[in-house]
Design goal:
This protein is mostly helical and 147 residues long. Helices cover 73% and strands 0% of the residues. The chain is built from five helices and no strands. The radius of gyration is 16 Å and the shape is globular.
Amino acid sequence: MNWFNYYGLIIMAVIMIPNIIYAAFHKNNSAGTFNNKAVIIAEQLGRYGCFVFMIFNIPYTYFDFWFDYALIVYLSVNGALCLAYLIFWIICRNNNGKLKALSLSILPSCVFLFSGIVLANIPLAVFAVVFTVNHILISYKNYVFIA
């Protein structure tokens, strides 16, 4: 893989499509009740860092696949995680429960963490950790406030 990760772009598109559709139909329902500014900013930094480094590989911070058949493992695991993500979106589309809150935050976090590790992409792994911790926290806290 060179500086541009086509597989990462496809994975990002799969993850983003249901979010874009949801946002289009629920314009007034996008703000959560959890308002810790530091956590929200850290989550957004992690999110956009993951978006960028899933698609673009920066030289000397990205070391490509580091074991045999890693591309097959990368595509298989990310494909399964993306499929699970889409299934949970379909199952939970009209539900605001803990299952929706946690599954739709844990699954993309796993995609980013796994991709950062398998690609030996240091910035992606770092941003994935920041995103994971804060995104799951925000999702859980928003669920607790709603319930």
